[in-house]
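hiii so um. not sure if this is the right channel but i have a protein structure encoded as tokens and i wanna go backwards to a sequence. like what aa goes where. can anyone help
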């Protein structure tokens, strides 16, 4: 079976671009049936607490996992290595479209590439975090009030959330 794993970090982002890229790849490579797994969770959340963890448990020898880029699997080198090692052990083929990377076996070249892509994902996450902090600092200096408004009660929000569930 072929699976397309799609992850975005916030509900303000859309999964459509990733889905289109995976569908296009499948059409170009004559892959007929694909099952999409998509979720909205940060790549820093442990794999076990994401749909990816459930997917990894259910993948079987010979399955194919397609992602748009390695960073969809996680945002740290260790997390990406752990996921990829599990795929290697289960003999799952991994395709990362934007990275132009296909992992079909456990060899030195693949390990070097995994390290490079994992490192770039981690560096990217750090750069995003740094830019966000600088942006917030600049907004504060320009007089923007950040955070919750005075009088906002967290309890109300929690109670509303409980009622909706």
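sure thing!! here u go:
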């Amino acid at each position: 079976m072929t699976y397309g794993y799609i992850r975005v970090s916030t509900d303000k982002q859309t999964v459509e671009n990733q889905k289109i890229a995976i569908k296009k790849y499948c059409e170009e490579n004559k892959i007929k049936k694909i099952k999409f797994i998509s979720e909205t969770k940060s790549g820093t959340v442990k794999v076990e607490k994401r749909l990816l963890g459930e997917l990894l448990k259910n993948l079987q020898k010979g399955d194919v996992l397609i992602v748009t880029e390695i960073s969809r699997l996680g945002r740290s080198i260790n997390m990406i290595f752990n996921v990829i090692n599990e795929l290697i052990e289960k003999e799952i083929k991994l395709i990362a479209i934007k990275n132009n990377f296909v992992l079909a076996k456990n060899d030195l070249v693949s390990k070097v590439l995994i390290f490079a892509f994992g490192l770039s994902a981690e560096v990217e996450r750090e750069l995003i975090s740094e830019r966000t902090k600088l942006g917030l600092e600049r907004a504060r200096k320009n007089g923007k009030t950040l955070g919750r408004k005075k009088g906002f009660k967290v309890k109300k929000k929690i109670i509303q959330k409980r009622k909706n569930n």
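oh and Residues 2-132 form a domain with the Rossmann fold fold (CATH 3.40.50.1390).
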